[in-house]
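Protocol step 4 of 6.
Sequence for Matrixin family metalloprotease (Haloplanus litoreus) entered exactly as in the expression construct, tag removed. Do not edit the line below.
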Amino acid sequence: MTARTLVIAVLLVLAGCTTPLDPSATTPTDTPVPAAADPTTPTRTGTPTATKPATTATPSANPWGDEPIVVAIRNEGGRVRDFEPLVREAASFWEENDDAYLGFGVRYEVRPDAENPDLVVAFTDEIPDCGGVADAVGCAPRLTDSRMVDRPETVWVKSGLSDASTTLVTKHELGHTLGLDHDDAPQAVMRARSVIYTEPQPNATERDFPWADGDFTVRVDRENASDPDGVGRQVDHALTYYEEGTSGMPGNLTFERTGAADAEIRIRFGETPTCRASSGSCISTYGTDPDGDGAIETYTRVEITLVGLDTDAVGWHVGYWLAHVFGAEADAEKPSPFRDASYRERRSNWWE
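Step 5 output, structure tokens:
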């Protein structure tokens, strides 16, 4: 019987930037601050559920025998990409470290179009079932004995990963075909959970709508507001403005009030360590960074902080920042009430 093992992706979650808005200025100015980890957004983890053989690789027990292992490459994904250099790099790792981690010698012959290979490395957009574990980015048989090898064996690697992550996952899966388990060395390669990055993706600031969907939960913390009821009505004006639809903004947006700490939109009052404006507002954006470039690709939540504002200005500031995170980064792209608004216009019934 062949047991199948896998590696699980864990995507980094980063915070974005905080930008102040001076209500006396003609147009807001952006001042980015360094990104920080977002402790409230869950990462995706998992453990293999397949039953593993009790036996492990032992010195001079190469399950493939003494001949070079012929490796073919099959691209079943939806993108054209040259995987050969990455597979060669992964194979070379085990050739160069066989004495240290395997206890036997191993040699590979990578021939992408080999007709009768010993092993196929298949790149696919979706990993076939591998023990019933979600979010797998690779899958391979764990082979500890020559009687377990049924040529050609197949190693599955998820396409769409960065070069470094593709190489890491391929190394990991080749390790399984050489008898190694998740507890074996080298742990940098064989551990069950690793940080995995995708190929480059558009940043949130480059997307038309940088959210997974248009349904939002909203929490309003009014403890530090001078007029709790008044600011509540002002926030309602801003939310209704977008819910009813406005030119240049996504349609079918919905907002559900909640007291939950994990609300996607949080509005609060009073200074914070990242928002010390004497009178104005700031926004902090949080989201995922699947390609590891240090910039958010998709927002998961935002915090709008209002400091020292009179009640009548609250709705405008909330509306301004919502346009910002709904895809209108530049003021020229925002709905007309938020373009070069004067002090008086910000305190008018701009939503009508």
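Step 6, annotate. The helical segments are 84-96, 98-101, 163-177, 187-190, 228-243, 311-325, 343-346.
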